[in-house]
Amino acid sequence: MHCERIEDGAYWRGSFTAMGSPCEILIDSDDERLANTLCKLVRDEALRIEHKYSRYRVDSVLSLINASRGHPVTADAETAQLLDYAEQCHRLSDGKFDITSGVLRAVWRFDGSDRVPEAAAVAKVLEHVGWHKLQWRNPVLILPEGMELDLGGIGKEYAVDRCALLCSQTAAVSALINFGGDIYISGPRRGDQTWIIGIDDPHAAGTTGTGALQLRRGGVATSGDARRFLMKDGVRYGHILDPHSGWPVSGAPRSVTVVAQTCVEAGMLATFAMLQGARAEEFLREQHVVHRCVR
Length: 295
Fold this sequence. Notes:
The termini are far apart. It is globular, with a radius of gyration of 20 Å. Strands 1-2-3-7-8-11-14-15 form an 8-stranded antiparallel sheet. About 30% of the residues lie in helices and about 25% in strands. The model has no long low-confidence stretch (mean pLDDT about 95). It contains 7 helices and 15 strands. Helix 1 (about 30-55) runs antiparallel to helix 5, helix 5 packs antiparallel against helix 6 and helix 6 (about 265-275) packs antiparallel against helix 7 (about 280-285). It is α+β, with helices and mostly antiparallel strands and about 300 residues long. A hairpin with a 2-residue loop joins strand 12 (about 230) and strand 13 (about 235-240).
């Protein structure tokens, strides 16, 4: 992969696809060789994480865990760190953030149609949801048969922060890493200039009608239902599911964007806010973070 010059040579851009999303890195440097090095570094790390934790690959660590059928699995250090984080998120969210809830995709397909599942079908799948039903004592995990883990709620944000760390260890240049809207900025551009980030308008996906953020450093994440929803009888069902009920969270904003010190933290707060439903804005004000909510 090679970088290309953008904006009259103001910075370099490398792009690729990973984790089901368009990915890019913007590098504020005149050094073409360095730019290509960082582009390759970021792509390789993103693909490594995707291969390791994809639920679509039978040889991934996640698929091996999900196929363990109640037998103990010893997690490697990186996986154990992610499981510890997932457990922490579950505790801090009063059980609303739950990486076992991915099995609900068996009945919920947010494809813009009106195919809302029957309550009985949701209840049946819900029997296999609940972090409290598995056993996790770092580094040993026991996942009951029929249950699955899905790291989709933290995987991209983790990949962004990992790539940002590797870039900072390689060169002292300003870079913006963007994996499908999950972003980290390593520092101000030359001349102490900010990076400008457009915020997707959930009422017109693909446009930035809700404005932009100007940042010199930090993580940015957005959670919303612009592209994943159902619509039936005038009711919109967003894709953020309450693991306690198995149904979409009621009263949630159309989108929430959060700025934090890391992309992982921003993603966690954005998701927590969506899970709060009608209390999303109040929750974010209590966290004292820069945010944008769109109803």
